[in-house]
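Q: I'm a student working through a structural biology exercise. My instructor gave each of us a protein and asked us to get a predicted structure, then write a short paragraph describing it. Mine is Biogenesis of lysosome-related organelles complex 1 subunit 5. I'm not confident about reading structure output yet, so if you can add a plain explanation after the tokens, that would really help. Here is the sequence I was given:
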Amino acid sequence: MTKFTAQSLYSDLSQLDDLIFKQGQHQLEQELNDFVQSFETKDELVLVDSIAKSYVQLTSCEQKLKSSENTELVTATQQKSKLVLDDLTQVLESINEVQAEKNNLPFQSEREAYLIEREERKKAIENELRRESDKIDERYAKLTRDSIYRNLVGYNP
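A: Happy to help. First, here is the predicted structure for Biogenesis of lysosome-related organelles complex 1 subunit 5. I'll explain a few features afterward.
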């Protein structure tokens, strides 16, 4: 007769777990690391919050620069800030255009109408199914009552 100890059973289960799940866990960990790394190292990622912060800084920059004494530096900085401001407005416009295109996909209204119609058909079918199920339940209840009555009274119509 073979005797199993808890320690040997746990070690066998641990090896089985490693054999079954280790490759999947390793692949999942690798994919997550690649995903996180791609977003941490991406330099071109532009966030709307960072654009808004830059816009606020640039619009308030002009007032701060006017109060300074060196006008040549002020004008050069103003020109640079206007260029950056123009770039930011272009980026914001492109973001707005992309969002508008996303919202105005072709056949969007037809798709929404189809989805509404499909939902209505689904509800109608469910209601019909519920009615039929109720009819079947009522018929079964009636047959059961009749059967019980016939068995108790001994009546056969």
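A: Here are two points you could use in your paragraph. Helices lie at 6-41, 48-66, 71-103, 108-153. The chain has four helices and no strands. It's a good idea to check both against the output above yourself.
Q: Great, thank you!
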